[in-house]
Amino acid sequence: MKYVLVTGGVVSGLGKGVTASSIGLILKACGLRVTSIKIDPYLNTDAGTMSPFEHGEVYVLDDGGEVDLDLGNYERFLDIKLTRDNNITTGKIYQSVIDKERRGDYLGKTVQVVPHITDAIQEWIERVAVIPVDGKEGPPDVCVIELGGTIGDIESMPFIEALGQFSYRVGAGNFCLIHVSLVPVLSVVGEQKTKPTQHSVRGLRSLGLTPNILACRSTTELDENVMEKISRFCHVPVDNIITLYDVSNIWRIPLLLRDQKAHEAILRVLNLKGVAREPALGEWTSRAELCDKLHEPVRVAMVGKYTGLSDAYLSVLKALVHASVPCHRKLCIDWIAASDLECETAKENLENYKNAWKLLKGADAILVPGGFGDRGVEGKILAARYARENRIPFLGICLGMQIAVIEFARSILGLLDANSTEFDPNTQNPCVIFMPEGSKTHMGGTMRLGSRRTYFQVADCKSAKLYGNQSFVDERHRHRYEVNPDMVQQLENAGLSFTGKDESGRRMEIVELPNHPYFVGVQFHPEFKSRPGKPSALFLGLIAAATGQLETFLKKDVPKTWGLSNGTSGLKSHRYVNGSKLANGSLDGIYSKGNGIHV
C-alpha cells in the first residue's frame, strides 16, 4: 500500500480538499486504484451536529455516515463510494481508545497520547486504506490522506506525531508528503512572497515531517526565480514544486497538475514509475473545456436558510453545475434568504423584500434545499407557491419537499393551519410528522440516514423517466420528519401525486404535480450521488425544464454519461415570469449575486 499525505500551511481555506481530490483523480487516470481518508482534528465524533455556517454542509455517505464536505469532493472527483470510517476525527479516536481502556484492553497500563492515541490513529489508517471503494475486489493501490487544519494547530498535534511515526514505519518508498502552502502576491509591489511558505515548511520539519512535494497556491503562476528560491530554502527539488494558480473552473485543477507533471513527481517518490501509465484525462479535459465555452445562462433561485455561506449547499451547487453542462448552459445562482420573502421582512426591510422577490420572479427555476429549524420556512412556502402557480420549474429537497406539501394543503385543500409538527406541534392538520423511530433526546446520528430504496408507484411520471424507467432507485437520506401518511389520500385526491414510496408504502419519497412543467419534491438528497459526467437525474430534469429541453430528455433513456460535445444544443433557453415566456440574453461567466464563482 502506498500513501500520499496532503497537509496545509500558512492559512486555512487554501483548497487542500480539491488538491487531494485532484491528486487522487490524476493517479486514478494513471491506472491506479485510489481511496481517500480525511482527518478532522475536532473533538466532534462526526459532522452531524455542526452548524453549516461554521463548517459548511454535512455530507452523507451510503452507510449513513455524516462527514466533512471534503469527502464529497473525493467521491465526485474519483467516482467512488466511501464509508464513515474514511473520515477520522479526534472524537472517534479518543472514543475508541477510551472504550478499549474501559474493556481492560490495555492491561492496567497508563493510557497516554503517545503511544496509545498515536497507535490508534495509525491502526485506523491502515485498516481503512485497504477497504475497496470502487466496486472492485481487493485493496486499492494508493490511499490519499488529507490532514485538516493548518500545520501548527494544537488540536492536530497527535495526528502529526502519528503520521511522522507512520511515515517511518511504512518506509520512504511508500509515503509521499505533499504540502499545500500560500505564496501571496502583495498588491502594493506585485511581488510573489515566499517567506510564508518557508516558515510553514520549517514548522513542518520541526514536527518530524519532511515534504516531498510543495503545492503552492497563488493567484498567478510562480515565476521561475521564485520556484528556485523556494527550492533552495525548503530543500525540495524544483521539479517537485507545483503552482496551483487560479483557474476558470475547478475541473481544471487536475489538468494543472498533469501539465506540471505532478503525477511523475508522486510516482517517482512512491517507486511506481514502471507500474503506472500516462494519465488518461480526455473526457475530463473535454468537460472542463466545454464548461468554459458555455455562455447562455440558466438562472436558478436557491431559496434557503444558510445562503450567506455557499459551502452550506456545496453538493447542491455541484449537482446544478453537473446538470447545466450537458444542457449547454452557464449556471447562474441567485441566492435568496428565505426569510426575505416573508411579509415580516417587508415591514422591517422593504429593500431586502423587494430584491428577494425580484430575484425569485427572474429565475428560470426555483430550488428549495434541505434544512432544519423554523427560520425562513414561511418564505420557502411562498417560493413553492409562486413556482406552482406560475408554472416555474421547481425542485424541493428534504425540507423542500415537505414545505411543498404544506403549501399544497394550505392553498388547494384550504387547510390554512397545515404545517409540520417540527414548526407547530399543536397544528390541527399535521402534513409533516416526526418519524416514529426517531430520538427526541439525542441529536447525533439519530436521523434516518444513508442509502434507502425508493419504489416508483407511477411509471408514467417525470421522475421515473428521468431515472431511466427503473422500478426503484437508491438515494441517500438525512431527515427526522416525514409526510404524514394519514393525509396522503386527501392530498392525492386533490391532484398531488406521490410517485415514489419506500418498501412499506407508508413513507413518501417523491411527490410531483402531473400537470406542471416540472414540480418535483424528494425526501432524499439526490445531490450526494451526482458526479461530473453523471448528473443527478432530478437536477438534470430541473435544468432541462428551465431551458426548454425536458421533453427531449424524457423521450430517451438517461445515458450513463451525458454528451461532452463542444457545440451547442441548438435549443433556446426561456424563463417564465408571471406566466409569460421571456427569452434570456447572453451572460458571460458563472455568477452568484453578480460575483464570479468557481464551479
What does the model show?
Pfam families: CTP_synth_N, GATase. This protein folds into two domains: 2-288, Rossmann fold, CATH 3.40.50.300; 294-555, Class I glutamine amidotransferase (GATase) domain (Rossmann fold). Helices cover 34% and strands 21% of the residues. It has 20 helices and 25 strands. A hairpin with a 6-residue loop joins strand 20 (508-512) and strand 21. Helix 5 packs across helix 6 (157-170) and helix 12 packs across helix 19. The radius of gyration is 25 Å and the shape is globular.
How do you describe this structure in short?
The chain is α/β, with parallel strands linked by helices.
Give a quick account of the main beta sheet: strands, pairing sense, barrel closure: 11 strands, mixed
Briefly, what CATH class of the largest domain? Alpha Beta
Beta-strand percentage range: 15-25%
How does the overall form come out from the CA principal axes? globular
Terminal Cα span: 33 Å
Calculate the mean pLDDT score and round it. 89
* Radius of gyration, taken over Cα atoms and rounded to an integer in Å: 25 Å
Work out the count of structural domains. Answer: 2
Strand order in the largest sheet: 17-16-19-20-21-13-12-10-11-24-25
Q: What class would the helix/strand composition place it in?
A: alpha/beta
CATH topology of the largest domain: Rossmann fold
Q: List unreliable stretches of 5+ residues.
A: 559-599
Count of helix runs: 20
Helix content: 25-40%
Based on DSSP secondary structure assignment, what is the total number of beta strands? 25
Q: Considering the protein shown, what is the CATH homologous superfamily of the largest domain?
A: P-loop containing nucleotide triphosphate hydrolases
Q: Supply the CATH architecture of the largest domain.
A: 3-Layer(aba) Sandwich
